[in-house]
Amino acid sequence: MPNLIDNFAQNLLAYGLKQKNVVVLESDNRYLSKTHLFSKHTENRFYSFGLSEKDMISTASGLASMGKIPIVCAFAGNLTGNAWQQIKNNICLPNLNVKMIGINAGILSENYGYSSPCVEDIALMLPLPNLKIFSPANEEEGSEIFKHMINTFGPMYLRLSSFEYPETEEQKNKFEEGEPILIKKGSQISLIVTGPILNTILKIINNPKSKIKNFPTIYSLPTLKPINLPSMEKIAKKSKKIIVIEDHREIGALGSILSQTINKKFSCEIHSIGLKDTFFENKNNIPLCNPEKLFKEINEICKKNYFFVHGI
What we know:
The chain is α/β, with parallel strands linked by helices. It has 11 helices and 12 strands. The chain has helices spanning 4-16, 36-41, 53-65, 76-82, 84-92, 121-125, 139-151, 197-205, 229-237, 254-261, 291-302, and strands at 22-26, 46-48, 69-75, 99-103, 132-134, 156-160, 181-184, 187-194, 216-220, 223-225, 241-249, 269-275.
């Protein structure tokens, strides 16, 4: 099954090799991030920093000030946590053209230890001025976003899950920065999804055995910052409720953004489904990792018997 890190590695080869000013910096994750494939072709444009994310970000700022396009790869938790001060002062403050890739982001990612999953990165990166944040759901969005990042000036953060998601045949609309993508029309309740959990939801509702009726309208939102608020307001105007599903803590992510903006203008209810205010040990207890619990929670928000699910 596909995953976003493999897709990133393919795009890095496709676009990075063509642009001679692209350089890659990694912190002891070349095989997990698949950046070792890039290093085989361009040893003089590939730098390894071991477990020293702060030094890596500071070096990236220097390279960017010399006209290079640094692509920085690290575990999302180490990058956004350990090197946050350097990202703020050395990248975002001078508005440098550095592209940061946070791998193994989210609840759905592979668990390489108790501290490895990163579910706070969006909350940490959102307040930083000049920074754009992207979270693709699938290969189509991932490829469009990477191409956009390479060709657009400014600091950017791309969060990538290692989750191997099921392939779907759903028609995808072209990515446009800040815009929600309509995936499937449904009821007057809107389901806004960010990240690869979208594919699991589509796989289930498209399965005839599921017998789902009157399911919410589904949108993908691969841009977390900036968000085109007029587009989101149009969704809010025609929605009785908005349910946000995100591979992150419920605090400080997409649901929080919409609650702070849309709720001020519209009476539309906004609900979030993500990780509660707790650490997690058993993924089966988390709705995003358990389709039956996820759909049950959606159903409860929509009000009992709003739609019917059978045979998940």
